[in-house]
Amino acid sequence: MSILNWPVGERPREKLLTRGASALSDAELLAIFLRTGVVGKSAVDLARDLLTRFGNLTQLFATSEKSFCQTHGMGQAKYVQLQAVMEMSRRALQEEMQAGDALNSPRAVRDYLQLLLRGRAQEVFVALFLDAQHRVIVSEELFHGTLTQTSVYPREVVKRALHHNAAAVLFAHNHPSGVAEPSHADELLTAALKQALALVDVRVLDHFIVAGAGCLSFSEKGLL
After folding, report:
1. pTM confidence score
2. pLDDT in tens, 160-173
3. In the predicted model, what is the mean pLDDT of residues 119-147?
4. Of the chain's two ends, which shows fewer C-beta atoms within 10 Å, N or C?
5. E-assigned strands of 13-146?
6. Residue 36: how many CB atoms within 10 A of its CB?
7. Is 134 left (phi over 0), alpha (psi -120 to 50) or beta?
8. What is the DSSP code string of 130-158?
9. Contact predicate 132/167, CB 8 Å
């Protein structure tokens, strides 16, 4: 049945306008993005098919162009639009962090890092360089590794901190395994980075691990 034949209050667009975006399911939100379905399937049906194939929104957003376009009804134009939506979300959260003290905006920091790192197939090490008021100067992906490890060089991190004239830094990396708990190597790396940056008066405020739907804070765990 076409969505146009649904009760008005159950149509995704009308439901969003009257009840807010948070009232919609993942499939309904995705259906609004898709706009139309295919022969024999509504936009909501097609959205459900996509979520079934890729598992969840995170995996859908992280999929390759080739894999996305192999889905019936999907093409390069939709893939480009999806990536644009993701990038706009990341930039909006980055602007929010840059506008004020990052430590007073923990939700924005976590949301940004999860958008940036969730679903990545290999480990990525990120640094958010902050000024003296803890406003984000810039976010940089410094190192990329294999599925299980990333080689991070403290000397290079120090060079980037000095380049940006940073007063403090937040670190983050992902665990593609989905397990957010820090390894012993993660703890040793954090200690080494903290020691190296202290020599140039740059404070390490936190180190986050993004894994699955979780985002673990070293500071909250008492590991800094």
Report:
1. 0.68
2. 999 999 999 999 99
3. 88
4. N
5. 124-130, 136-144
6. 11
7. left
8. E-TT--EEEEEEEEE--SS-----HHHHH
9. yes
Bridging pattern class, strands 168-174 and 124-130: antiparallel
**Residue-wise burial string across 68-103, b where 16 or more C-beta atoms lie within 10 A, e elsewhere:** beebeebeeebbeebeeeeeeebeebbebbbeeebe
SS3 185: helix
Q: How many CB atoms lie within 10 A of CB 134?
A: 18
Q: Angle CA(64)–CA(68)–CA(70) in degrees, nearest 5?
A: 120
Amino acid at 29: L
In the sheet with 203-211, reading across from the earlier edge strand, the strands are 136-144, 124-130, 168-174, 203-211, 214-217
Look at the block and give the residue holding tokens 């080689």. 151
State which amino acid sits at residue 81. Answer: Q
Whose tokens are 């007063």? That residue is 167
- CA dist 151 and 149 (Å) reads 7
What the block records as the tokens of 110 is 């976590």
